[in-house]
Each structure stands twice: as C-alpha cells, then as structure tokens.
Design brief:
Blueprint lengths: L1 E6 L8 E6 L8 E10 L2 H8 L10 E2 L3 E9 L11 E4 L14 E5 L3 E2 L7 H4 L3 H14 L7 E5 L4 H12 L3 E6 L5 H6 L4 E4 L5 H9 L4 E6 L6 H6 L1 E9 L12 H7 L2 E4 L3 H4 L2 H17 L6 E6 L3 H10 L5 E5 L1
Parallel strand pairs: 9-10, 9-12, 10-11, 12-13, 13-14, 15-16
Antiparallel strand pairs: 1-2, 1-4, 3-5, 3-7, 3-16, 5-6, 6-8
Helix pairs in contact: 3-4, 3-10
Bound molecules: NADP nicotinamide-adenine-dinucleotide phosphate (NAP).
NADP nicotinamide-adenine-dinucleotide phosphate binds next to helix 1, helix 3 and helix 4.
Amino acid sequence: MTRVVRFHEHGGPEVLRIEDVDTRDPGRGEVQIRVKALGLNRAEALLRSGNYIETPPLPSGLGLEAAGLVEAVGAGVDDFVPGEAVSVVPPLSMVRWPAYGELATFPARHVVKHPPSLGWEAAAAVWMQYLTAYGALIDLARLRRGDFVVITAASSSVGLAAIQIARKVGATPIAVTRTSVKRQALLDAGATHVIALKEEDLPVRLAEITGPTGVRVVFDPIGGPLFEPLTAAMSPGGILIEYGGLSPEPTPFPLFTVLSKCLTLRGYLVHEIIGDPVRLEAAKAFILGGLASGSLRPVIARTFPFDQIVEAHRFLESNEQFGKIVVTI
Ligand SMILES: NC(=O)c1ccc[n+]([C@@H]2O[C@H](COP(=O)([O-])OP(=O)(O)OC[C@H]3O[C@@H](n4cnc5c(N)ncnc54)[C@H](OP(=O)(O)O)[C@@H]3O)[C@@H](O)[C@H]2O)c1
C-alpha cells in the first residue's frame, strides 16, 4: 500500500483526501519514484475543481511535478537504477500518471537526472515553469537581446521563470502584476520594469517604457479585457502568446490592431514542447545549462508537509504566493 492524494468529487481544496491505495509495479517503459517533493501547479487546482482540459473518471489522482529517488524500473528501462535522484517533466496526462503520492510512476522519457546541487524542493519546481516559459519565449517567439517582453501574472511560477529566461538572453522583461504589493520582490527577481495593473495606466506606462519601439513579445496567461491594451502596445510583427485563462471575463478580439500591425496571436500549451522529443531535448539542455550557471534559479514561495495538501491548495488559490508552492514528503 502507498499513500496518495485523490478526490472523489470536484470542488474546493477540501475535496482532496490522502488515501491508502494498492501499489502497482511500474509497467514497460515506466519508472517508479519514491517522492521527496512535489511542485504544485494551477492546472491541478483546475483538474480538482472540474475546469481543466482533462476530464478525469472519479476518484482521480492529480499532480504534474515530483522529485525523488528511483524505487523500481519497468521492463525495457535501461537508463535508471534504483536509488538515483531524479525529477519529472510533466507527463501529458496527470490523470494517468498522477504525482501526488509517496510513490508515483511516470514514463521513463519524462524522468530526468537533475544537477545534484539542486535540493528536493528546487528539483520539484523546475520543469513545468521553465519548460512552459522556454517553449513560448525561446522556441516560439525567438526572444533575443534588445526585445521588450511583457510578462503578465508575473509573480506566478511561470512568470518568474519567464523573467529569468528573458534576462538570460538579454531581453528586457516588463512584469505586470495586479497590485504593487509584489513590486519590490519582482524587481529583486530580475524584472526591469514593474506595472501594477489596478494602480497604473497600462497603455501609458508601456508607452513610457518602450517608446516608439513597442513590445515585440507578450507572454500572457490572463486574457480578458487586458488583451486590448496589450496588443495596442505591440510593435509591428510582434507575437502575443496566450497560455492560460485566469480572467473570468470574455476576451475581445482587437481586429484592427491585429490587422494593421500584422500581429501573431498564438495559443500555447507546454505539451507542444514535451510531446516533441527534439524540441524537448533542446529545452532540457537550455534549462539544465541555466540551472548549472545559476542564471535560472527556482523561486519557492512556501513549503507544506504532505499532510497539509489541502492548505497548500488553499494557498495556491489565494494568489498571495510569489513563485512555486512545494509539498514535501
Ligand atoms: N499553457 C500551458 O501549457 C501552461 C503551463 C503552465 C501553466 N499555465 C498557466 O500559467 C498560469 C500560471 O501558472 P502557475 O502554476 O505558475 O500559477 P500560480 O503560481 O498559481 O500563479 C498565481 C499568480 O497569477 C496571477 N493571477 C491569478 N489570478 C489572476 C487573475 N484573475 N487576474 C490576473 N492575475 C491573476 C497572480 O499574480 P500577481 O500577484 O503577480 O498578479 C497570482 O499570484 C496559470 O494560468 C496556468 O494555468 C499554462
């Protein structure tokens, strides 16, 4: 038996339960991990509440990111041996390969030997945030020195990863956050400029910062009414990558702005990178290089023990966090 987190109905954090379930042996091509730390993601709160791109049969497990020691390997797995320290690139389905448990099983191609200098907590906080930001900014937008890039929901784990990646390539990250509460922390985290959405005039501030150059790249998980001022601030030929739907409001389509500036509006899921072995290897090399050099450093907002998984989800949905929420086992 092993302890895992499951939910039997959709709802708030309180539907999460820790339960004893039978352990299954890893199948062909799979690696079983004794989990030391979990990285929490917004997607898990969406699956739990019934609003995610996957619809699970109930009861369901959940969880996309883990770090720990290899416990056992299935047939056909030659790259890993029990006892090795590994972390997990999010699998394409968290319903099929849920991470929240003392033991968790993943396809071997999603298991990575991370740099030993990373502790368990940091190792559980690497892959979702950096792969998501890398895929959008580097693989798709080809972000480069001299570009202005607007990063909304800047204090999210993905937002902070995007700020670090922008600096790594010499671009200028403009962080957009709801209020000024996190302003100083965002500057300390590498943002060149910070705009507090509810307290400042976004178009005016963006015009002041970028001058006639405009913003070439926008990386946004919010959508809604923000779309119009963001596209209005973009330079001709710019690209807006939309990767979430945090705003509950409808998203207008700014037809004439998009037309007149030949903008690219691009929907994006990190699965696009994870599902392509060539692009995934390039992403892993970029991220492992950044971790080794220190230019990429996961920011941990707060750590909870496994037994407090409900409190950890409450904190995730409080939006008070600055960076990644981690659960240790
Ligand atoms: N497409 C993909 O493949 C992919 C992959 C990973 C994540 N995502 C998406 O990326 C986003 C961030 O994920 P995460 O796990 O890093 O999240 P997170 O750490 O939970 O992000 C929370 C932050 O988002 C901002 N926020 C939350 N609700 C908002 C709202 N209604 N309006 C404006 N800002 C809001 C707040 O930042 P401030 O306090 O700074 O305002 C908040 O602190 C989520 O939308 C997630 O679904 C997408």
